[in-house]
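Page 47, continued from p. 46.
Same chain as before, 193 aa.
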Amino acid sequence: MTTTPLRKDAARNWDRIVAVARELVDQGTPLQLNDVARRTGLGVGTVYRHFATPEALLEAVATPRLEALAAHGRQALADTDAWRALESFLTHTVEAQVTDASVAPVAAASVNALPRTAELKESLWSTGTTLLDRARAAGAVRPDLAAADLVPLMCGIAYAVAVHGSTPADRIDTAHRYLAALLGGLRATPTAV
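Result:
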């Protein structure tokens, strides 16, 4: 995707808007563009020129983490151990969901406000599908597990962690425990001889 670079002042404004939005998301405060404009000291029109909707702003906040996940996905695809690659990718995915409040709602949204979000989500979906297919072909996962099951399962873990984990360390520990239980259920059971 090629875009025209922003003027320096516009780039500074974009950065300020996203930084304030990041703070609000981290505090659990719903994004409202008028509130973001007030907190940044920018005009409402400036905020709306950069982000037409709160969803677009939320996606901009989530983009760096989604890009990091996509990069990790590319690394996982290079791993020759199919189970380890899938496990690593799912671990990074659930960690992102429980440590970055912008990731889970963006990942779960059925409609994307920004083209870059659609690209990243497609990349993550494709990576997860490929890793699952490889693990299935290697006999490492249950044959009845579908690629479409992965996103709801990861979102389910993120939701459960949000309900039961209080501190960041608790959320990570809880996420790892829940993911370990899920992964145990995903593994193919050896056939009896």
